[in-house]
Specification:
- This protein has one domain (27-156): Jelly Rolls, CATH 2.60.120.
- The chain is 13% helix and 53% strand.
- It has one helix at residues 2-21; strands at 26-33, 38-40, 45-51, 58-67, 74-82, 88-96, 107-109, 112-123, 129-137, 143-145, 147-156.
- The chain has a 5-stranded antiparallel sheet with strand order 1-11-4-8-7, with no helix packed on it.
- The longest helix is centred in the first third of the chain and has 20 residues, at 2-21.
- It is globular.
């Protein structure tokens, strides 16, 4: 019996170590909760990313989790990037979350659907320093319901 528990602990430890070491390409990833799961048009999520590598290309993603009660099949976002040298750039993106029949594209578990939405691909940051990314919903509604969290991921291209 003691051997079974020792073996199980060793297997669990190896599994947990392999999960934590699989994300070697991640430079930055942070998700922020949407208060009361109701994303107000004035709620802007800000992410400060320190960039030190100005040679390696990166991909940028917007993370989001919604519930299956989310009333739309898409999500429009305004994304403002503040560069370390005080310039800024604004983008509008449309994120397709479901097909026309209502089948969700994301990865689901129960009632929750997770998305890793491509924002920019093959980006080479021109300067080192702190880049600030601001994400706000642009759905022409004051409150967007059933959004659990919003995040940003920056990863090196393999």
């Amino acid at each position: 019996m003691k051997f079974k528990y020792s073996f199980l602990i060793v297997i669990l430890t190896i599994f947990l170590f392999s999960i934590s070491s699989c994300d070697k390409n991640r430079i930055y990833e942070k998700n922020k909760d949407v208060e009361n799961h109701l994303w107000n048009k004035d709620s802007i999520f800000s992410f400060n990313v320190e960039i030190t590598d100005t040679i390696t290309p990166c991909n940028l993603y917007i993370n989001s989790r919604i519930t299956s009660q989310y009333p739309k099949n898409n999500l429009y976002l305004f994304i403002t990037t503040h560069f370390p040298y005080k310039e800024q750039m604004c983008d509008t993106i449309e994120c397709f979350l479901a097909d026309k029949s209502g089948k969700w594209y994301g990865k689901g578990f129960g009632d929750v659907w997770s998305y890793k939405i491509p924002y920019k691909r093959n980006v080479i940051f021109p300067h080192s320093g702190i880049y600030t990314f601001e994400v706000e919903q642009a759905m022409r509604t004051v409150n967007l319901p059933y959004v659990l969290d919003v995040g940003l991921r920056v990863e090196k291209i393999k």
